[in-house]
Amino acid sequence: MKKLKAVKLKQIKAFIKKLPKKLAGKAFLTFLGLFVLSLIFGGLIFYRYSIIPQPEPVEEGEVGLKFKSELYQKILEVWQNKEERFEKTATKQYLNLFIR
Fold first, then answer.
1. Considering just the CA atoms, what is the radius of gyration of the chain in Å?
2. Interaxial angle between packed helices 2-25 and 27-46, expressed in degrees from 0 to 180 and rounded to the nearest 10
3. What letter would DSSP give residue 26?
4. What pTM was computed for the model?
5. DSSP track, 36-66
6. Sign of the CA dihedral with 20 first, then 26, 27, and 33 last
7. Distance from C-alpha of 36 to C-alpha of 44, rounded to nearest angstrom
8. How would you write the pLDDT of the chain (100 residues) with one tens digit per residue?
9. Do residues 30 and 23 make contact, with C-beta atoms less than 8 angstroms apart?
10. In whole angstroms, how far apart are CA 17 and each of 5, 28, 70, 75, 83?
11. Dist. CA 76–CA 82, nearest whole Å
C-alpha cells in the first residue's frame, strides 16, 4: 500500500515538473485557457456580489436619518476658526532667509 502511494507521489512530482514546459510549448492555448478561467471567475464574483444581493425592505418602524443641528454648528465653528487662522497667515510678512 505504501509502495503504491510512493509511486503515485513520484508520478505526480514528475508531472508537475514537466507541466511548465508543456504549457510554454502551447503558449496560445495556455493563454486562452487562463483567459477563459479568469472570465468565469470574474463572472462568478460579479454574480455573487452584484446580481444576487436584493435590497432589504425598509420597515415602517425604523428611524431614518436624523440631522443633528448641534453637531453641525460645532463643525461650522471649527471650519470658521480654521479659515480665520488661514487668512491671518496670508497677511503676515515672513523674513526672506535667502537674502543676506
1. 34
2. 100
3. T
4. 0.44
5. HHHHHHHHHHHIIIIIS--PPPPPTTS----
6. negative
7. 12
8. 566 677 788 888 898 999 889 888 999 999 999 999 999 999 999 999 888 777 777 677 666 678 889 999 999 999 999 999 888 877 777 788 888 6
9. yes
10. 18, 20, 69, 64, 67
11. 10
